[in-house]
Structures are given as C-alpha cells and as structure tokens.
Specification:
The complex is a heterodimer of chains A (144) and B (614).
Chain A lengths: L6 E8 L2 E6 L3 E6 L13 E7 L2 E7 H4 L10 E7 L2 E7 L2 E7 L4 E2 L12 E7 L2 E6 L1 H5 L6
Parallel strand pairs in A: 2-11, 5-7
Antiparallel strand pairs in A: 1-2, 1-8, 3-6, 4-5, 6-7, 9-10, 10-11
Chain B lengths: L6 H24 L5 H20 L2 H18 L7 H22 L10 H11 L21 E9 L6 H13 L3 E6 L13 E8 L3 H9 L4 E6 L18 H28 L2 H24 L1 E3 L1 H4 L2 H12 L3 E6 L4 E3 H22 L3 H6 L6 E10 L2 E8 L6 H10 L12 H8 L18 H12 L3 E7 L3 E9 L4 E9 L2 E6 L3 E8 L4 E3 L2 E6 L2 E7 H5 L8 E9 L2 E6 L2 E9 L13 E6 L5 E5 L1 H4 L1
Helix pairs in contact in B: 1-2, 1-4, 2-3, 3-4, 3-5, 4-5, 6-7, 8-9, 11-12, 12-16
The chains are: A mainly beta (144), B alpha+beta (614).
Chain lengths: 144, 614
C-alpha cells in the first residue's frame, strides 16, 4: 500500500484493542448515551439513543469484537456505513491521526479478532492498531 | 398576460373534469336512455375545450371539440345512444387524458396521434364537423347585429386561484368580440383582496345567452350578468388558496417536533414544581394542541378522491374478463390525511382486482346460481374510533376454503391437524407472498401478490387488513387505517424497567389481569372479561424480560377488527402524543415492533404493532 495517499483516522480503544475508523465516515463523537434496548435483535445492538431529537441505532463495538467491558464510560461514534447513519459504542477515543503511507501494513492476523473485520494493521509510535473494515463489521447486523 | 402560471390549474381542472366524464359515461352506459349523464359530459368536455383553447393547447382543444360535436348530436337526438357510441366516447376521454398528460409533462402535442379517433368521432356524429372552430364556443354563429353591452362576471368564492380563473373568463370574452373598460383592471386579479367580481364592456355580434355560455365555459363562474342587469351585489367570500403539499408536510413535521417538545416541557415543569413555569407550559400545551388540530384539518381530504378512480378501472377490467360488474361507493365524504390517502389507492386496487377476477362469477355462472347477471362490488368508508375502515365487498362466489386448505397442506403452510380455516388463518395464508389458488393466471390478478401487497401496505400505515368470506355469497375485505400518520396517541406500558408505546387506536379498554384466574382457549392462556375469554399475550415474554411480576397487573385489551387479545404488562404509564420517528432497523426486528418514538423525557421507546400481537 505504499502508493496510498495519507489516511486520516479516528483512533479509539475497545477493550484491549486499539482500533481506527477512517475519519471520512465519522460524523460526530459524543459521550456515551443510555440506549433503549431493541428486543429480538442481535446482542451486538445496544439499542436506540436520542441524538438531538433523532433516533440513532447504536451497535456495541465490544460485543462485535469479542472484548470485555471494564466499566469505562466510553464514547459514541456516529458513523455513516453503507449509507446508514448509526452509532458505535466504543471505549475511550484516543486520537485523530494522519497515517503516513507505509505505516499501514496489509491485513494481518490478530489473535481473537475475526480477520474479515480487519482492513489493515497499522503502527504508530510503538503501538499497533486495527483499521476496521466497518462494512464487514456492521453489515451482518442489518442483514447485508 | 402570462398564462404559463395557470398551467397547473389547467391540468388539475382538466383531470377533475375527465374523472367526472368517466363517472358520467359509466352512469350512461348503465342506462342509455338517461339524458343527465349526456348533459354532464357535454358540459365537462365543453369546459375542457374552452380552457385548452385559452391556454393554446390545440390538440386537446381539437379533441374536445370533436367529442363535444358527437355529444351535441346525441343531445339533439340526431345520433341514437348505443354501446358503440359510449365506447367511442370512453376512447375519446382516454385520448384526452393522454393529451392532457402530455401537456402536464411538457411534451410536444402530437396532432396525428388521434387521427383515427377524430375520424371515428366525426363519422359517429354523422355530419362533417369541419375543422375545429374554437372561437365558436356556443353553437352555430348567430346573425345578431353588432352591439355593445356591459358584462359582470363573478367567480365562485371557493374557486382556487380566483385571479387565474377571472383571467381565463376574460380571455373567453375576448374571443367573442372587443373587450373594453375592464374593472377592476386585469392586473388587480392577482391581488389578495380581489373578490372574484369584475365587469367589462363587450362589443360583438352574439346574443346575451351565448356570451354567458361562453364565459361560463371558463369554469368556476358563479354568475354572469349581461346588459342592464349588471349591478353590484355581495358575494359571501370564503377565501381559499392552494398550498403545495410539501409545505404542509414540513409544517406537520415541525408541529410533530413541537408536540414532543411540549411533552418534554410539561414533564420538566411538573418536576420543578414552579408555578410560573407550570402555567406557561400549560398555555404552550394548549396553543400547540390547537395548532396541531389546524394543521391536521388542513391535510384532510375526502376518501372520494381515491374511490372515484375505481369505477372506470373496474369497468375496463370487467370488460376484459367478460363479466358484468357494477361498482358503488359510499362514505366518500369521510376524510383522511393526505399522506394516508396517497397510500391506500394501490392496496384498494389490488382488492378490487381480486374481487373482479376471483370473486364475481361470469354472467352465465351467476344466473345458474340464481344471482343477477351483473355482479356488485361495494366500496365503503366508515369512521371507527381513530381509524377509518374501508371495505371492498363483492357478491361473488366467495373464497374456496377447501381449495386453500388443500393447497396450504401441500406446501406445508397448514398443519395436518387444521380442518377448518378461520378468517384469520385464511388471511394469513392468502397474504403469504406468491400464494394463489387461481387455476389460471389471468394477468389481472391470480399471482397471489395482491393480498400480500395490501397487507404490507396496511401494516406500513399502522393499519390492518382483514377478510370475511362466505362461499357462494361473497367476500369482504376491510382495510383499517389511522386518520393521520404523523402524530399518534399512545398508551405507555412498562415491563421490567422498559417502556413501550401502544397506539390508542387499537386499545379497547384496560382491565386487571390476575394470574390466579386464567382459563384456556384452545391450549392458549386466556382471561375472562365480562364472560368473554380473551387470549392473553404477556409483553414480558414477547420482549424477553425474565423475573416474576406481581400476580395482579394491568391487561390492555387490543382490538383489531374482530380479533382481540389482552396484552399483559407490569404497569400503565399514562397517555402521550407520540411522533413516529425513523430509525435503522437491525435484522431480526420482531414483527410486533411497529416503530419507535421519543418520549416526553427524551428517552427512545419502541411502538408495539397491535395487529401483530392479536
């Protein structure tokens, strides 16, 4: 991926994983909001939250990535994925970064993480983080 | 003067007149000796001709002129009414509809398209009608001497775009002779305070009656006074304007938001206990309620707008199927929100097609069964609580339950233990996509998609579809829809620490459920309410909440058509006006969740779909 242009990304923590989402699809970063549970749907759906008078369906990044919650309050990312505006409940939001070409490695295997949801693994300073394939991560929740 | 801004008016009115033409033709077809439909047809076509000529739509004007000539010949007894003449006039009305449609889409008029039809119309009229003489609005030219007279025109107070109408009337007058001294001037027609009344001096060679007829042909003319009779007078003006539906939609959405904000304010005021805040909140609540009522009223339109489309469609279908069918409508004056009205046309059309194709028998079969050859389809609308029930009934052969049972067993949708198909079960099977017992696919219906679509649409509207059918006697489909979509009155129910909204439209009453006093109906738990066993639905179980609620707790009796169920909840939390809010629905959303909303305290809540619970 040496020829790729620089990539802007939002970096956040989900359990023990450090994750990144392309900045272009992140509409907003909000503090965590209490969600109304939706019965009958997948466990990875936290429920509905009210964002300034509109309903947002929130997915739980911890459940989607098989991570334990350790009581942290966390944040809510408002994303646009496959034309849907939805929320992703994550842990602490760490940073907004510009990744230089070359710092992004091709898809790599990480223990305990479904390789389908990983676009790439990148390194910054001494930390590795997962550039998430959000289509693959949230698509199944909506049957696509 | 620029007429282009009256294009929309021309289209709307032409379509209304053409719809009226179809109604008159249907009436006339049933009784060829009747004269009233011919008169109505003549007037409608005459008005279309006048408007089209004024607007410069020559193809429409020429078609209308030749149609009018044939009607005039029938009216004058020179041509005998016959099924062929009626059919030719149906074709003419269709051609006019096409031509008006072209005008609406801004397409070029095609003079040659209707050549054959024009020739047929001329041939039927018996005399060479000659080229359309559009200035001749009211019959053969008169030889009255040229004279000048004062004309006063009053446009109907209820007429939309009165200014445009006045201008059209003036144009008609100008086609008759020289027009002078227009008062108030035509530029005043545009003003808000123009009351629809104007005078002018006309110099021409027509007699007064013809002048009046020609001006009246502009449409929406309440009064034309010619000559000395012209005096002042008062017209009770109820002022109206036409509003773009998009504006009403935006207004409705904002009022919806306002209702939510009002609820939130009332909640905050209640908690704070501050008197001044409480008072202001109450005042705002009253104002918002009044405003909500006004906006809702502005959006209401009569069901007849949808009903009126069907007789003509049904007639053509019946012809194709070789059947005789009469379609009648009642309750057309009952009003529904524009948005609901726009959605019910298609499901009703499917139900009517079904009635014609599968319900009504062929004339021979009907006579053999001791019925009149002509089948009947009855459309009706009735208000039921906060919903409107629209019924499509036929007096045909009824649904063959035995055939459906056989078919359902074969494809596994009906268990072997089922021996009798209840109306509910019947609907559930018919509504399955692709289910059809029709022995042939007729192109009209029979692919089994109609009922499926009707059920889906009904549910999308927060309504229901139900069916009753008796073999040999007929079938009745009932489509129940809410009066409006935007704001729903709901009862809030709590289970565990969750809250759900139940639309009041389907709540018959609330009762007390006692777990120690339940009975059973066909292996289902039921509770007895005034000697009737009503099956229970436990909301805790439906939404997957564990734990032991108290033995005595509220039951909400849901009523959807004939079906009832007691929805058992932990507690009732009062009523609220709620606005249905869109959200991205995850896969696997249970059918009993009909939508979502934001409650007064700002928390989201899910809305239960009564039809899926009973």
């Amino acid at each position: 991926m040496a020829d790729s242009p620089a990539l802007h990304a939002v970096i956040f923590r989900v359990g023990t994983l450090l994750c990144a989402a392309p900045a272009g699809i992140v509409r907003e970063i909000l503090p965590a909001l209490p969600a109304t549970r939706i019965p009958g749907v997948a466990d990875s759906v936290s429920g509905l939250v009210n964002v300034r008078g509109s309903l947002l369906t929130v997915l739980d990044a911890f459940r989607l990535l098989g991570q334990q919650r350790n009581g942290e309050e966390g944040a809510l990312l408002v994303l646009v994925v496959q034309g849907r505006t939805l929320g992703l409940a994550v842990g602490e939001v760490r940073d907004f970064v510009e990744l230089a070409p070359g710092s992004v490695a091709d898809q790599a295997r990480l223990p305990g993480v479904d390789p389908a949801v990983v676009s790439a693994v990148a390194r910054r300073d001494d930390e590795h983080f997962i550039l998430l394939n959000l289509d693959a991560l949230v698509g199944p929740v909506f049957g696509s | 003067m620029d007429l282009s801004k009256y294009a929309a008016l021309f289209l709307a009115e032409s379509r209304e007149h053409l719809a009226a033409c179809n109604q008159s033709l249907l009436e006339w077809e049933r009784d060829l000796a009747a004269t009233e439909p011919v008169g109505n047809l003549f007037r409608a076509i005459h008005t279309i001709k006048g408007m089209a000529a004024t607007m410069g739509h020559d193809t429409v004007a020429a078609l209308a002129h030749r149609t009018e000539s044939l009607l005039d010949a029938v009216r004058g007894g020179r041509v005998a009414p016959s099924p062929d003449v009626v059919q030719l006039l149906f074709s003419a009305v269709d051609a006019l509809t096409t031509a008006v449609g072209r005008v609406g889409r801004g397409e070029a008029e095609d003079d040659n398209e209707h050549g054959a039809l024009l020739a047929d119309l001329d041939a039927a009229a018996g005399a060479a009608a000659g080229p359309a003489d559009l200035a001749d609005q009211a019959g053969p030219a008169d030889t009255a001497p040229l004279r000048s007279r004062l004309v006063e025109v009053v446009i109907r107070p209820m007429a939309p775009l009165r200014g445009g109408r006045a201008l059209l009337a003036l144009r008609r007058a100008e086609a008759l002779g020289r027009v002078q001294d227009v008062r108030p001037g035509a530029h005043m027609f545009e003003r808000d305070d123009f009351d629809g009344r104007f005078t002018f001096r006309l110099t021409g060679d027509l007699d007064d009656g013809m002048v009046e007829a020609a001006i009246r042909a502009a449409g929406d003319v309440e009064q034309v006074l010619v000559g000395d009779a012209v005096q002042g007078g008062s017209v009770a003006a109820r002022r109206q304007i036409r509003v773009d539906l998009g504006r009403l939609d935006a207004l409705m959405k904002q009022v919806g938001e306002l209702v939510v904000a009002r609820n939130r304010l009332a909640d905050i005021a209640g908690r704070s206990g501050e008197a001044a805040l409480g008072e202001t909140s109450e005042r705002i609540a009253r104002l918002v309620s009044a405003m909500q009522g006004e906006v809702l009223a502005a959006r209401m339109n009569p069901v007849a707008e949808v009903f009126d489309r069907f007789p003509r469609v049904a007639r053509d279908l019946a012809r194709d199927l070789g059947k005789q069918v009469r379609i009648d409508a009642e309750g057309g004056s009952i009003e529904l929100d524009r948005a609901v009205l726009d959605e019910i046309g298609e499901p009703l059309l499917h139900l009517i097609r079904n009635a014609l194709d599968h319900g009504i028998e062929s004339p021979a079969d009907r006579i053999a069964a001791g019925k009149p050859a002509e089948g009947r389809v009855q459309l009706s609308a009735t208000r039921e609580r906060n919903t409107v029930a629209i019924r499509v009934s036929d007096d045909g052969r009824g649904i063959d339950r035995a055939a459906i049972l056989v078919r359902g067993r074969r494809d596994g949708s009906i268990g072997p233990d089922v021996t009798v198909l209840s109306d509910d079960l019947l609907l559930r099977i018919l509504a399955r996509a692709g289910f059809s017992t029709a022995t042939r696919v007729s192109g009209v219906s029979g692919r089994g998609v109609g009922i499926d679509i009707a059920v889906t649409r009904a549910r999308a509207l927060g309504g229901t579809l139900s069916v009753t059918s008796e073999q040999g006697k007929g079938t009745t489909w009932t489509l129940r829809v809410p009066l409006t979509l935007a704001i729903v009155r709901a009862l809030l129910a709590g289970v565990g620490d969750e809250r759900y909204a139940v639309p009041i439209a389907f709540v018959a009453e609330t009762v007390e459920f006692d777990a120690r006093q339940v009975s059973a109906v066909r292996d289902r738990e039921a509770m007895v309410v005034r000697n009737h066993a009503i099956p229970t639905v436990h909301l805790r179980r439906e939404v997957g909440i564990e734990g032991n609620p108290p033995a005595r707790r509220p039951g909400i009796i849901l009523e959807v058509g004939e079906r009832r169920a007691a929805l058992v909840v932990d507690r009732l939390l009062g009523q609220q006006d709620i606005v249905v809010e869109p959200f991205e629905a995850p896969d696997g959303l249970p059918p009993f969740l009909g939508g979502a909303t934001i409650l007064a305290d700002g928390a989201p809540a899910l809305i239960l779909d009564a039809a899926a619970l009973v």
